[in-house]
Amino acid sequence: MARHDRGTRTTAVPAQLIPYPHATPRRGSALQTTLRALESLESLLLRRGNLTARRNAWTAVLEDRQRAKARTEAQRILEAAKTRTPAAT
To answer: Are 45 and 54 in contact (CB under 8 A)?
Structure first.
């Protein structure tokens, strides 16, 4: 009868269960994997309507940020134009 040490036993993962065994890990792929896992968990925990509402709210936040950035840039340009002296003729 063979004797097994519980602390040193490892389980090999079959090659067919590894999605891309030939691919090398890239920077950011762990972040993408984590993001996908969180999105999957979110969709399981939240009802569809709640999930849609949250995504719509986030889209609105991003659009507000873009508008604020454009407004700040326009204000900077207007202030620069106002302080510029007219060219002498």
So the answer is: no
